[in-house]
Amino acid sequence: MKNIYISPKFIKQGEFELVERKGVGHPDSIADGIAQKVSNELSKYYIKKFGRIMHHNTDQVEVIGGTAISKFGGGEITKDPLIILSGRATQKVGDEIIPIHEIAKEATDKFIKELFRGEIRVGIESFMGEGSSDLKDVFGRKNSIPLSNDTSFGVSFYPFTKVEQLVFDIENFLNSDKMNKKYPAIGRDIKVMGARIKDNAKITIALATVDKYVENIKEYATFKEQIIEILKDKFGSCDVDYYINTADDVERGSAFLTVTGSSMENGDDGSVGRGNRVNGLITPYKPMSMEAAAGKNPVNHVGKLYNVLSLYIARDIYHNTNAGETQVKILSQIGKPINEPLVCDISTEKELSSEAQKEVRKIASDWLDNIKQVTEDIINEKVNLF
């Protein structure tokens, strides 16, 4: 029983729209990235050693900000940020002890070095424990289709609006290797907020600037102007206004300077699940789950799987039918097969004929039957989770 429902078409957005993306170097995104990296490395270790993924959930990561003294021409870190790893992971199979803390710390260290190109140090502590017996029991039952380990829901939609796509693309562009090489003052900690007011879009960007690449406030102001002109040239300026670091006070010499390119160096903390949803955005004008997807096990934790699955279903419905924008919401029940949700609710922009409704149900049903593909995509890092 797939329990697939098609709701009446939804009402399109009106005159206002808000959308946000926290870049890869934002403390919340760092927490998400570490949680997912630890889960992936544990999964690969379990598969190599035991032929299957063992129970784990590593979605409890805290980034504790350090302290720094930033200044034009180059400052210094006076206290390194601290990464605290928590959550649960299977630590013993038979007589074999699994080095979960070592795996988690190595994964964290690798993630930070790759993200910041080796230019930042962090402390790492692991407090991961063993999972509860009931969740391990649900996880370990021999079924061809895993049983859900939670009563939870996943939500997504497809495609992006123009403003959503703009916000997503701007952050990825500014954080690209090409821009970093040409403008090394651009830090990894970038947050982009978009607001559409009728036909006008206002893009506000918080851009952590690496202090050693900027000599003075005048050069800093010129740098910001250059970046805005680059954005206008690439993404257009018709009906779009761009703002960077609006808290700056150039006359007083106040600027968003960092030593490393991330605000986690100086008191800004981060936690898993406070950032982007699985589609890479925070969309208060669209349905979204508050579930933290990063770090949850990719086998039967529907808080992770259903958020990815709903995106896949919405995407395929949009591309393969005339439904237009599609929204998908899927609800599980703990202990039930993950391919048999309690509800799979699909709503579309356009009215659907009976034939189109059959095709929509088939797309959803096929994806539910092939939900293990979602697990494989997550482990092989073919899908972003934040």
Q: How would you describe the shape?
A: flat
Task: Please provide the count of β strands.
Answer: 19
Which band does the percent of strand residues land in? 15-25%
Tell me the name of the CATH homologous superfamily of the domain at 162-271: S-adenosylmethionine synthetase, N-terminal domain
Oligomer: single chain
The top-level CATH class of the domain at 162-271 is: Alpha Beta
Question: Might you state the CATH topology name of the domain at 162-271?
Answer: GMP Synthetase, Chain A, domain 3
Instruction: Outline the biggest β-sheet.
Output: 5 strands, mixed
Instruction: Label the CATH architecture of the domain at 162-271.
Output: 2-Layer Sandwich
Query: Overall mean pLDDT score?
Result: 93
| Fraction in helix | 25-40%
Structural class: alpha+beta
Straight-line distance between termini: 31 Å
Low-confidence stretches: none
- What is the N-to-C order of secondary-structure elements (H for helix, E for strand)? EEHEEEEEEEEHEHEHHEEHEEEHEEHH
Number of helices: 9
C-alpha Rg (nearest Å): 22 Å
Secondary structure: elements and pairs:
Blueprint: E1 4-6, E2 16-22, H1 27-50, E3 56-57, E4 61-64, E5 67-69, E6 76-79, E7 82-85, E8 88-89, E9 92-93, E10 96-97, H2 100-116, E11 123-126, H3 133-140, E12 153-158, H4 162-174, H5 177-182, E13 186-197, E14 200-210, H6 217-235, E15 240-244, E16 257-258, E17 270-271, H7 302-320, E18 326-331, E19 343-348, H8 354-369, H9 372-379
